[in-house]
């Protein structure tokens, strides 16, 4: 069984994340969505809320692809999380060159820690390249329409929290 790990804060999950998840399902039999417990980032949504949003948004993808998708909170090193869940592949989404520079460094460090875990980069679909959770929250906070950037239930949760 091929197990992949797609890590992130997912605060909140966006259409860009959903696109990467959908495409990652073509590469693995089981996709673990690693939900980072990162208090330093000051997430808008608590861990339970983020996990619940992910579970709700990936249920149809799992059903349609036949891929098992699970949300797994983690607070340790990414490579240790990969080991914990049995992942041999880390899936990362790229939006721009700036993402690549950071991710390139991370791959090098992860390979030094455990060369048996590969990293696969999936380029964001052109329509999702500008989407970042931080920007979505700011747009919503300032009264803008985020319906093109997040699923409807996430939009409702953002509006309830920020307005």
Helix count equals: 6
Q: Level of helix content?
A: 40-55%
- Percent of residues in beta strands: 15-25%
Radius of gyration: 15 Å
Number of strands: 5
Assign an overall shape. globular
Structural class designation:
alpha/beta
* pLDDT averaged over residues: 94
Main sheet: strand order: 3-2-1-4-5
Descriptive account of the structure:
It is a single chain. The protein is globular and about 45 Å long. A five-stranded parallel beta sheet has the order 3-2-1-4-5, with helices on both faces. The protein is an alpha/beta fold and 163 residues long. The N and C termini lie far apart (44 Å). It has six helices and five strands, in the order E-H-E-H-E-H-E-H-E-H-H.
Summary tags:
single chain, 163 residues, alpha/beta, 6 helices, 5 strands, 45% helix, 20% strand
Quick rundown:
The chain is of the alpha/beta class. 45% of the residues lie in helices and 20% in strands. It is globular, with a radius of gyration of 15 Å.
Chart the SSEs and their pairings.
Blueprint: E1 3-8, H1 15-24, E2 30-36, H2 47-65, E3 68-74, H3 78-85, E4 89-94, H4 97-113, E5 118-123, H5 133-141, H6 152-162
Parallel strand pairs: 1-2, 1-4, 2-3, 4-5
């Amino acid at each position: 069984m091929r197990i992949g790990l797609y890590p992130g804060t997912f605060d909140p999950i966006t259409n860009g994340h959903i696109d990467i998840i959908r495409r990652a399902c073509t590469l693995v039999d089981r996709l673990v969505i690693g939900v980072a417990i990162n208090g330093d980032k000051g997430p808008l949504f608590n861990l339970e809320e983020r996990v619940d949003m992910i579970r709700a948004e990936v249920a149809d993808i799992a059903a349609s692809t036949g891929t098992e998708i699970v949300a797994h909170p983690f607070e340790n090193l990414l490579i240790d999380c990969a080991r914990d869940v049995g992942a041999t592949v880390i899936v990362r989404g790229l939006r721009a060159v700036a993402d690549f520079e950071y991710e390139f460094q991370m791959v090098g460090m992860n390979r030094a820690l455990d060369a048996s875990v590969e990293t696969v980069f999936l380029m964001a679909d052109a329509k999702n390249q500008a989407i970042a959770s931080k920007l979505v929250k700011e747009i919503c906070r300032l009264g803008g329409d985020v319906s093109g950037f997040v699923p409807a239930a996430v939009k409702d949760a953002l509006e309830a929290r920020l307005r």
